[in-house]
Specification:
Elements lengths: L14 H31 L9 H15 L4 E5 L6 H10 L8 E5 L5 H9 E2 L11 E2 L1 H4 L4 E5 L6 H13 L1 E2 L8 E2 L3 E6 L3 H6 L5 H7 L2 E4 L10 H16 L5 E2 L1 H9 L5 H15 L4 E2 L6 H6 L19 H15 L4 H7 L4 H10 L5
Parallel strand pairs: 1-8, 1-9, 2-5, 5-8, 10-11
Antiparallel strand pairs: 3-4, 6-7
Length: 363
């Protein structure tokens, strides 16, 4: 065993026992290969791409680079939902000396309080009813690497005390165990909650807050960095156009205005989903107004559409006649080039041809 054997079998033995040991040995071997492969892939890929030219993001990127190269053991990332807090945690990990070690993440809000302790610290066999085998926790599995505690603000108050105790000396006991286990892990926590308000409400420990936020990083919302919206949108267009085999390479001027003017309550996650949907449904070189969800078109404020000096007459007008005239004029302006004419009206080619056929310009 000291020289690397996985297990041993006592004589006399039965075939079922031997088959079970061999199966477990093969599973362990396969898992180890997968871990090596994943670590190798992460190392090749490097840190995630975080884009932004705004002053806010330049400051954040500078802070992230400093933290990654430092020995800071605790980092607190704060920001609204969808601002990319996990990407920041991964960037810090993969740009650090810990890059070859594990990066493990857990959502503290998604795991019941009764199970979170076992997930983080592990347990010994027989520690509770369903503990049929010993299990290593995330802190033990990530030794040498980084643990990302997402939604730390939702952690139950009793569990907060246990986490604080661990942070003091980086040692812990598995549930049901007596041995103190030391580990070397960097803790990156994240929350979209106002922790100072939570401290006032007695739902978050004051001492844990100051222990976690040795290095605080505040991520701005997308509406606070509007100059980055089109940078991110064009990046997502490039990614999804390649993924779905679509020709889209840019954004029409009207679509750009709406994207910039929209407030993006869901931040980067919402922008990413909107672009993905637009690429799937569209089939043009540019992302057009009609590819955007209605809620964006409706909620975008202060967007002015350049119009001619047309004025609605008192007696009213047939809207179909106005649409027919616009189709006709766009065709005449472009020498009946349908693609160019469609772009003049910010329409997709299929939508434009439908209208041509509707008004008798196309048989």
């Amino acid at each position: 065993m000291r020289h690397g054997a996985y297990d041993y079998i006592n004589k006399p033995f039965n075939l079922d026992e031997m088959a079970l040991v061999i199966r477990k040995a093969l599973e362990t071997s396969e898992l180890r290969r997968e871990v090596v492969q994943l670590r190798s892939e992460h190392k090749k890929q490097g840190p995630p791409k975080i884009l932004g030219n705004s002053k806010h993001m330049r400051n954040v990127l500078e802070m992230m680079a400093k933290v990654a190269k430092s020995d800071a053991s605790t980092v607190l990332v704060q920001g609204e939902s969808g601002t990319g807090k996990e990407l920041v945690a991964k960037y810090i990990h993969y740009e650090s000396a810990r890059a070859d070690k594990p990066f493990v993440a857990i959502n503290c809000a998604a795991v019941p309080a009764t199970l979170l302790e076992s997930e983080l610290f592990g347990h010994e066999k027989g520690a509770f009813t369903d503990a049929k085998n010993s299990k290593k926790g995330l802190f033990e599995l990530a030794d040498g690497g980084t643990v990302f505690l997402d939604e730390i603000g939702d952690m139950e108050i009793g569990m907060q005390a246990k986490l604080l105790r661990f942070l003091e000396d980086r040692t812990f006991r598995r549930i049901g165990g007596s041995k103190m286990i030391p580990v070397d892990v960097r803790i990156v926590s994240a929350t979209n909650k106002d922790l100072l308000k939570a401290i006032e409400d007695k739902s978050f420990r004051n001492d844990l807050y100051y222990r976690l936020q040795v290095i605080p990083i505040f991520l701005p919302s997308l509406r606070e960095r509007k100059e980055d919206i089109l940078v991110l949108a064009n990046y997502f267009i490039e990614v999804f156009s390649k993924e779905f085999g679509k020709p889209t390479k840019g954004i029409s001027s009207m679509a750009e205005k709406l994207l910039v003017e929209y407030n993006w309550p869901g931040n980067i996650r919402e922008l990413k989903n909107v672009i993905e949907r637009a690429i799937i449904l569209g089939n043009d070189e540019n992302l057009l107004l009609e590819n955007l969800p209605l809620e964006i078109v409706a909620k975008a404020s202060h967007v002015t559409v350049p119009l001619t000096t047309f004025k609605l007459p008192p007696e009213g007008i047939d809207i179909e006649e106005v649409e027919r005239e616009l189709i006709k004029q766009s065709l005449e302006m472009t020498d009946w080039n349908q693609s160019k004419a469609a772009k003049k009206l910010n329409l997709g080619i299929d939508a434009f041809r439908y209208r041509m056929k509707k008004f008798g310009f196309l048989k």
